[in-house]
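so ive been stuck on this for like two days lol. basically i have the seq below and the ligand is adenosine-5'-diphosphate, smiles is in there too. i just want the complex predicted, nothing fancy, no docking runs or whatever. if the output looks off dont worry ill sanity check it later, just need somthing to start from for the group meeting slides
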Amino acid sequence: MSNPSSFPDPVQTPAIRIQNLTVSYGPKPALLDINLTIDPGLLVGVIGPNGSGKSTFVKSILGFVKRDIGDVYIQGIPTEKAKGLVAYVPQRGAVDWDFPITVREVALMGRYGDLPWYRQPSGKDHAIVDDALEMVRMQEFSDRQIGQLSGGQQQRVFMARALAQGADILLLDEPFAGVDAATERAILDVLDRAKEAGKTLVVVHHDLATAAEYFDRLVLIKQRLYAYGTPAEVLHEDLLSEVYEGRLRVFADLVGNRGDK
Ligand SMILES: Nc1ncnc2c1ncn2[C@@H]1O[C@H](COP(=O)(O)OP(=O)(O)O)[C@@H](O)[C@H]1O
Ligand SMILES: [Mg+2]
């Protein structure tokens, strides 16, 4: 079938482009000379041992940490000018769960960036929040206090807040940490649904055994970028033993589980 409005394929703008990025908190860089381009629409896992710079990597994409050198672009725009284009779901430990606030109010916080201080949320804001809560399957809990929810439900509410921001790119820091297996499936389902809706997702993940199953691409990081590619390309015994040193005992199992997406 001919398409009268067809154009030559536009050059695809990368969702995220990182050039020559070095970040230091002290004398030793946490990230050293990272170069990476992530295409839109992918579900990307970030793996590496504790303290390898995964959270710093995510914060650098957001422009939350000061760079020694290097550039980060979100959809072609320098990250410091790209605030509305990327949304962040922090690690659960970073949130005060006793704060008296409902599920709907947390999700509405995703809209506050767009609201002038004198205006109440509009019908459109509420509709966007309804969609976001539906996406994470938490709509029936709208009026529940956030402190009364399970860890996985809380995680999904914070995913709804990020979705309500309307950003095309979502960054999540260890969303699966400390949740049970059923909750892990529920969170993975939200990631898949967000991807189906066209989002690019970058997810810090601690479990190598499930990395191949969950993600389209993997970033393997330990101060430097050791690899970026499909799970089959990244989960190689020699690379993993170099990055994890003595801390990984189950190479054979992991390589056996390797996906070939
Ligand atoms: N705010 C900070 N101040 C000083 N050092 C930090 C800070 N945040 C992280 N680091 C250090 O930077 C390195 C990378 O940390 P991080 O990005 O949190 O790693 P990961 O998320 O992979 O565990 C670690 O050595 C950590 O101790
Ligand atoms: Mg971390």
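The chain has a mean pLDDT of 88. The longest strand covers residues 29-38.
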